[in-house]
Amino acid sequence: MPLLPVGLRLLLVGLHLLYGALLVALLFRLGGAPWHQHLKRHWSRQLLVLLGIRVEADAGELARIEAGLLVGNHISFIDIFVINTLLPCGFVAKSEVARWPLIGWLSRHADTVFIERGSRKAAQRAQQQMLKALRTGRRLAIFPEGTTTAGDRLLPFHGALFQSAIDAAVPVHALALSYHRADGARSLAPAYIDDISLLTCLISVLQAGGLVARVTLAASFAPPLSDRRHLAHRAHQAVAAALAHSEDSSQPLRNEAAINW
């Protein structure tokens, strides 16, 4: 089936963002965590359809992740929606995201914890919010590189945000995320880096003509956990190894949870 013109698909993405705001405003408050997860998964899957992105992951491995801290590499704002299709959760994001048009509003009302850079008090407040969420059995996700890359490298993981998982005595799950063209080669289209605008990144993804987002559970670390620096290093090594394997393989993951719409 041929794809719709990019301009029309971009319009549909904008309408879907408005639809998400309506869902949050009218329905989000009607239920607890399971209801929130259902809405996030449903809405995120629909968004990825509009963007022409298919998700591959090992369904059996991910099904075992009920709670804890998810950590992984960061390529694009689209990473959030890819993860939410598989493991709906709250995210820890930089405070600038809260000011993004519409997406910022959605984030503020969808269990996001914001961190203000350079403010020790704000960091402490965010740490307490993370600790509270993890202790109540929620899944929470962080991108410990602290920034995005094109997916061609993995930056060191900052250990500070791992402390909440140590204090809450919950598991840490390391995820490796990569984007591929239909032929299996890595795609740079989703990379949200340098001075690329949100709109430019969206158009780049739409023009790619169909992508595969591959999510791999690189490792899980059960409590009691080691100190945060050592834990961050181990998670980094696991993600690096999984990304290297993904780079070498153009075949879909076995028992894949490729989303069927």
List the helices and strands and how they pair.
Layout (H helix, E strand, L loop, with lengths): L5 H21 L6 H19 L1 E5 L1 H5 L4 E5 L5 H9 L3 E5 L8 H6 L4 E3 L4 H16 L3 E4 L20 H6 L3 E9 L17 H10 L3 E11 L6 H21 L13
Parallel strand pairs: 1-7, 2-5, 2-6, 3-4, 3-5
Antiparallel strand pairs: 6-7
Helix pairs in contact: 1-2, 2-4
Which class of secondary structure composition applies to the elements?
alpha/beta
CATH 2nd-level architecture: 3-Layer(aba) Sandwich
DSSP summary, beta strand count: 7
Rounded mean pLDDT is 88
As for the number of domains, it is 1
Low-confidence stretches: 251-261
- The sequence of SSEs as H and E is HHEHEHEHEHEHEHEH
Helix content: 40-55%
Helical stretch tally:
9
**Gyration radius over CA:** 17 Å
CATH topology: Glycerol-3-phosphate (1)-acyltransferase
Strands ordered across the widest β-sheet: 1-7-6-2-5-3-4
**Overall morphology:** globular
Distance between the termini: 14 Å
Largest sheet report:
7 strands, mixed
Measured by DSSP, the beta-strand proportion falls in: 15-25%
CATH hierarchy, class: Alpha Beta
Outline the structure in words.
The chain is of the alpha/beta class. The protein has one domain: Glycerol-3-phosphate (1)-acyltransferase (3-Layer(aba) Sandwich). The chain is 43% helix and 16% strand. Strand 3, helix 5 (103-108) and strand 4 form a beta-alpha-beta unit. Helix 1 (6-26) packs antiparallel against helix 2. The two termini are 14 Å apart.
